[in-house]
């Protein structure tokens, strides 16, 4: 009966392979979404937004090793008879081009009035800059490769598990 169960080392290696595959697939997929697909979707959605004048209330440039430089604005605008507070700068909500963020910060630093893009269907949704940054979106390519590698590993682990199960079942029938 012992030959029907895999060895502990084999079982551990299979579990580690499965964990690595799931990790690569999940991290790669989320990164592709946040680096490229979500900004592209937001750019397409914001094509029909309207431009309104806003008053810049606060502006800071934050830097973190994980996200780089980020412009953090606070602005107020009036749309459809209501006053709305906005905090979104651009399309890239996760990582962004640090040089572009610093240039935008310098551009906005001494301005009191700015123009923002507002979603007419949801006036609380707005942003200042609708520009896509290609350098950020290109970082989605290694993330896509990681997601594909994770998917391939998961597929290979599934095929190996299926074949091992079939082999154990065939051996059990012979006994």
Explained architecture:
- The chain is an alpha+beta fold and 175 residues long.
- 51% of the residues lie in helices and 23% in strands.
- The protein has four helices and five strands, in the order H-E-E-E-H-E-E-H-H.
- The protein has helices at residues 8-45, 98-108, 134-138, 140-174; strands at residues 50-64, 68-79, 82-86, 113-118, 126-127.
- Strands 3-2-1-4-5 form a five-stranded antiparallel sheet.
- Strand 1 and strand 2 (68-79) form a beta hairpin.
- Helix 1 packs antiparallel against helix 4.
- It is elongated and about 85 Å long.
- The mean pLDDT is 90.
Structural class: alpha+beta
SSE ordering: HEEEHEEHH
Which stretches of 5+ consecutive residues score pLDDT under 50? none
Largest sheet: 5 strands, antiparallel
N-C termini distance: 9 Å
Query: Could you tell me the strand content as a percent range?
Result: 15-25%
Bulk shape: elongated
Query: Overall mean pLDDT score?
Result: 90
Number of helices: 4
Number of strands: 5
| Helix residue percentage | 40-55%
- Main sheet: which strands, in order across? 3-2-1-4-5
Q: Over the alpha carbons, how many angstroms does the gyration radius reach?
A: 25 Å
């Amino acid at each position: 009966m012992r030959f029907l169960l895999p060895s502990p080392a084999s079982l551990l290696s299979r579990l580690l392979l499965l964990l690595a595959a799931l990790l690569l697939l999940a991290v790669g997929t989320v990164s592709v979404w946040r680096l490229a697909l979500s900004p592209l979707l937001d750019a397409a959605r914001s094509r029909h937004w309207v431009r309104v004048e806003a008053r810049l209330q606060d502006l800071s440039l934050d830097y973190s090793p994980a996200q780089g430089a980020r412009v953090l604005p606070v602005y107020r605008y009036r749309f459809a008879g209501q006053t709305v507070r906005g905090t979104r700068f651009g399309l890239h909500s996760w990582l962004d081009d640090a040089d572009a963020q610093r240039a935008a910060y310098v551009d906005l630093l001494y301005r009191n009035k700015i123009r923002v893009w507002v979603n007419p269907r949801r006036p609380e949704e707005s942003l200042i800059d609708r520009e896509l940054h290609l350098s950020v979106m290109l970082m989605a390519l290694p993330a896509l490769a990681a997601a594909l590698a994770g998917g391939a590993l998961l597929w290979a682990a599934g095929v190996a598990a299926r074949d091992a199960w079939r082999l154990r079942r065939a051996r059990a029938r012979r006994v």
